[in-house]
Every structure is written in structure tokens, then in C-alpha cells.
From TrEMBL:
One of its GO terms (molecular function) is transaminase activity. It comes from the Bacteria. This is Taurine-pyruvate aminotransferase. Its cofactor is pyridoxal 5'-phosphate. Keywords: Aminotransferase, Pyridoxal phosphate, Pyruvate, Transferase. CDD domains: OAT_like.
Length: 459
């Protein structure tokens, strides 16, 4: 820490202000406020360039650093391999690529093939291209439509935004790619009037079937869903939902593509979120926690049946004609393999289950104290608290008020998240996704900060 702080903080801040285009930020505010520069992380904590310490309940801001900061063994493994073999195009193999693909698919019974890329957006693009190519090769081009769910998010590219169920993330970026069709969300707390009832989960899933029938089953190639909706409000599908979704996909020969970019690698308490629900997907995409942010890597994983559809030596156009330049960088699979070992050795998915229960119990206790909390939901170390102005009407608080809670926690040295610029009028959910190494003392500190913030912002 001391050696890092010997640098000239003022110069770094001004260089950032003058030259860096930050993600998801209105830069007008940096004309009067210094950008926050994070310089070091250890375990659950990070320090900014002023020396202030923060407990990070966001795993790097976007739910990525699953094994925590400062893992020397990952950094050492990457360094050692890079000097031996840093990169070769994905048309050839590498030792870490083969080893990680084998280790990964051992955690995913029924899936066998791994396509390496760099980000969650890119992994989802690969999946969409696979679906489209299968449609052309095997269905005369007809089964090309891809269904996606309201409030789900799949990435930042134009194709991913075309499959994005968050209208504010999509705004001003159209026109979008054709052939993407939205299905209704499954948040029972905000249940659609026509779906309300004791079997809401089944009814919300049946709404997907209605869309398939409306579009024509012979035109629908895939359904892309998050196992648990993440930035759209931490939505755990209700009882009966996933079973019905699986049934519908099989009935109409629709490939089930599950986006595990956030939920994968132990976040929910199982290796992948879909495993909480007994689902058997055809395609699974992942990024973020795959290497816990120590290197850039994403994966598009498929069944052997999907892979086989691209094998036809008689057709020069049959293979998957795609490339990801930096999918050939060995740092990704090297870091991912060491990250996987840490998750196994320290039993971090199990810890996520235990600490997730502790976190949700604490949030429910806060709900008893603060009427502004209308709903608590989540699974493992992935939880949300929806804030409302009135519990009876469920009128949401404003995004500005939610931001004030986040800012208050920041002043206390605790970083939490919140839904923002996603769902019009419903950016009212506090988001919690601490690293899977979290202990009870860490959870207590997070809850204490939220308790104080709610008291100050809402009285």
C-alpha cells in the first residue's frame, strides 16, 4: 500500500480525468468531483488512491472477483505461463485451454464443448451466431428467432442489446437486429395481473409458450435466459417456472441457452445457477467469475449434440466460422484453472450457500425495522432488497433515493450496488454480491452500513 501511495495521486487523478472514458458514468460530475481510483485489493477489501479502505460487497463493482483480491497463486500461474506461451490463435490448441475445458465440463454434466472468448457479451454473441447458423444449415433458415426475457441482460453489443430486456440500457442504441423477441418477466413481487395466482411460476413460463405459438414454433430457434435475473432486480424464478420452461423448449425443439455470466462459478451456491433448478441446457455462457477478474476470459459451452451440428466435411460452410482474437490468449484459461482450484479447495460454493443464508436473514431483519424494504430475494451470495415508498401499493422509491443509500454506505467505507438505468421506474433494488470468501463479520459490516444508510436517507 505504502509503495503505491508514493506515486503522485494528484497527477494520476488528473490523467484519469483528462483521458479515461469511464463505464456507466455521466462525466459532467467529474468536472467538480475527483474520479475514484482504486489502487489495491486484499481479500474482501480495496483501497483508493487517497488511502481510504472499503469493504467491497460488489466483487469488483460488477460481480466478478469471486475468490477475492490478492490471490498471488493466480498471478504467479499466469506470469509463469505467459513467458512460456502467451498466445496462439484459437484455431490451434494450448495446454491450459485443453486442461481448463476438461475441468470446466466436469462441473457441467451433459455439456462437453468449450468455445473461448473474452467477455460475457462476446460469449453470448457466439451463442446467437451458433443458433442462426444451425437455423440455416438444418432448418432452411427458418428457426432463427431468439427469445429473451423482460428485465434480463445479456451484454453491450448491438446483438446482445437486441436480446436485452432492460429498456433503459437499450435506449438510443437502435435500430436493433431483427429476429429477437421478448417474453414476460417472472418477478412475482411485480406480478402481471394476467399471471397472478398460486401457480405464478408455471403461468409465467406458459407465457413463453404463448410467444412461441404466436411467432410460430418453426421460426423459434432458442430461448436465452439468466438463471436468476441479475441487474434487472435479482429475480429468482418461482416454484414450477424452470420445470415448465424446460418442458416447453423440448416440446418445440427450442435450444435452451442459459446466460451464467453473473451466476456462474459458485455465486448461487452451486457451480452454476441452472443447477439449482435441475435444468439441462443446450448452451451455457459465462464470464466474470470464471477467472475472478485476474484475466479476461469467457466461455460458450455446448452439448455434444449442438457441436455435432457443425460437423460436415462435405460442406465448406458447415463449421462454426467465427474467431475471437484474444480467445487465444493463454492467461485466461491459466487464471481460470487456478481460480477453479481455489473454489474447490476452499469449498467456496458451499460458503456462498452458508453466508448467503446469513445475508438474507440479516436483510429480512432490516426489513422488519425499515418499512422502505418491500421485498428481499436472492440465492447464495447474491441478494437484492427492493425499496418501496409504500408497502401496500408497492410504489417504488426513486432511483435518486436508492443512489443516496449507496452513497451513504460508501461514506461508511462499504461498497454496495443498486439497479440503475435499466428498468424504467423500477431501478429501486439494492444489490449485494460479496466475494465468496465472505465471513459473518463481513456480512455484519455490510448490514450495519445499510441499516444506518436507510435510517438517514428515509428517517
Amino acid at each position: 500500500m505504502d509503495s503505491l501511495m508514493q506515486n503522485d495521486p494528484a497527477r494520476v487523478i488528473e490523467a484519469d480525468r483528462a483521458h479515461v472514458w469511464h463505464h456507466m458514468m455521466q462525466h459532467r460530475q467529474l468536472e467538480t468531483t475527483d474520479p475514484r481510483i482504486i489502487v489495491e485489493g486484499r481479500g474482501m477489501r480495496v483501497w483508493d488512491i487517497t488511502g481510504k479502505e472499503h469493504l467491497d460487497a460488489t466483487s469488483g463493482g460488477v460481480w466478478t472477483v469471486n475468490v477475492g483480491y490478492g490471490r498471488e497463486r493466480i498471478a504467479d500461474a499466469v506470469r509463469d505461463h505467459l513467458v512460456k506461451m502467451c498466445y496462439f490463435a484459437g484455431s490451434q490448441g494450448t495446454v491450459p485451454g485443453a486442461r481448463f475445458a476438461e475441468a470446466l465440463t466436469e462441473k457441467m454434466p451433459g455439456l462437453s464443448r468449450v468455445y473461448f472468448a473474452n467477455s460475457g457479451s462476446e460469449a453470448n454473441e457466439k451463442a446467437f451466431k451458433m443458433v442462426r447458423q444451425i437455423a440455416h444449415k438444418h432448418h432452411g433458415g427458418r428457426k432463427s428467432k431468439i427469445l429473451y426475457r423482460e428485465r434480463d441482460y445479456h451484454g453491450t453489443t448491438l446483438a446482445c442489446l437486441s436480446a436485452g430486456g432492460q429498456l433503459e440500457r437499450n435506449a438510443q442504441y437502435g435500430p436493433f437486429a431483427p429476429g429477437f423477441v421478448m417474453v414476460p418477466h417472472c418477478l412475482e413481487y411485480r406480478a402481471q395481473d394476467e399471471f397472478a395466482g398460486s401457480d405464478y411460476g408455471v403461468r409465467a413460463a406458459e407465457a413463453i409458450e404463448e410467444v412461441i405459438l404466436r411467432e410460430g414454433p418453426d421460426t423459434v430457434g432458442a430461448l436465452c435466459l439468466e438463471p436468476i435475473t441479475a441487474g434487472g432486480g435479482i429475480i429468482v424464478p418461482p416454484r414450477g417456472y424452470w420445470e415448465k420452461v424446460q418442458e416447453i423448449c423440448r416440446k418445440y425443439d427450442v435450444l435452451l441457452h442459459i446466460d451464467e455470466v453473473v451466476c456462474g462459478m459458485g455465486r448461487t451456491g452451486t457451480w452454476f445457477g441452472y443447477q439449482q433448478f435441475g435444468v439441462k441446457p443446450d448452451i451455457v455462457t459465462m464470464a466474470k467469475g470464471v477467472a475472478s477478474g485476474y484475466a479476461a476470459i469467457s466461455c460458450c459451452v455446448t452439448t455434444e449434440a449442438v457441436f455435432e451440428r457443425f460437423k460436415d466435411a462435405s460442406d465448406p460452410m458447415a463449421h462454426f466460422r467465427d474467431i475471437s482474437t484474444f480467445g487465444g490468449c493463454t492467461s485466461g484459461p491459466v487464471a481460470a484453472l487456478e481460480n477453479l482450484r481455489i473454489l474447490e479447495e476452499e469449498e467456496l460454493p458451499d460458503n456462498s450457500t452458508r453466508m448467503g443464508v446469513y445475508l438474507q436473514e440479516g436483510l429480512f431483519a432490516l426489513m422488519e425495522k425499515h418499512r422502505v424494504i418491500g421485498d428481499v430475494r436472492g440465492m447464495g451470495l447474491f441478494a437484492g432488497a427492493e425499496l418501496v415508498a409504500d408497502r401496500d401499493t408497492r410504489e417504488p422509491v426513486s432511483e435518486k433515493q436508492v443512489g443516496a443509500v449507496v452513497a451513504d454506505c460508501l461514506k461508511q467505507g462499504v461498497l454496495i450496488g443498486a439497479s440503475n438505468r435499466s428498468v424504467p421506474g423500477l431501478n429501486n433494488v439494492l444489490l449485494f454480491a460479496p466475494a465468496l470468501i465472505a465471513e459473518e463479520d463481513d456480512i455484519d459490516e455490510i448490514l450495519e452500513a445499510v441499516d444506518g444508510a436507510l435510517g438517514r436517507v428515509f428517517g
